[in-house]
Write a structure and sequence with these properties.
Elements lengths: L2 H7 L8 H11 L3 H20 L4 H16 L10 H10 L7
Length: about 100
């Protein structure tokens, strides 16, 4: 395990619910704004999945993939035209990183 990550989770009481633990870990480190943003993104992904009759668990996976692609956008040779639109839609529509 990465040493910095093991330090970050040291003394954190995991409860076994991945979603709740992720949010609690962020709050444990006084990153409430990131926890709140993460929760809003997850809720929006579920809403979009339901709107388009897709399993919400796939929406979570799709956002993780789109988030990764968006973070790598300056390194990619080709970016699909829909990437920014899909990324912003799953993030909740706010254009923070563009």
């Amino acid at each position: 395990m990465d040493k910095s990550f093991s330090t970050w989770i040291k003394n954190f009481p995991f409860g076994g619910n991945v979603r709740q633990d992720a949010l609690s870990l962020l709050r444990y480190h006084q990153l409430d704004h990131i926890a709140e943003h993460t929760e809003r993104v997850a809720k929006e992904a579920i809403r979009l999945a339901e709107q388009f009759h897709v399993d919400p668990r796939l929406a979570d996976a799709a956002f993780v993939y789109l988030d990764y692609l968006w973070a790598q956008r300056t390194k990619l040779r080709v970016i699909h035209p829909w990437l920014k639109e899909a990324y912003l839609q799953l993030r909740g529509g706010r254009d923070l990183y563009c």
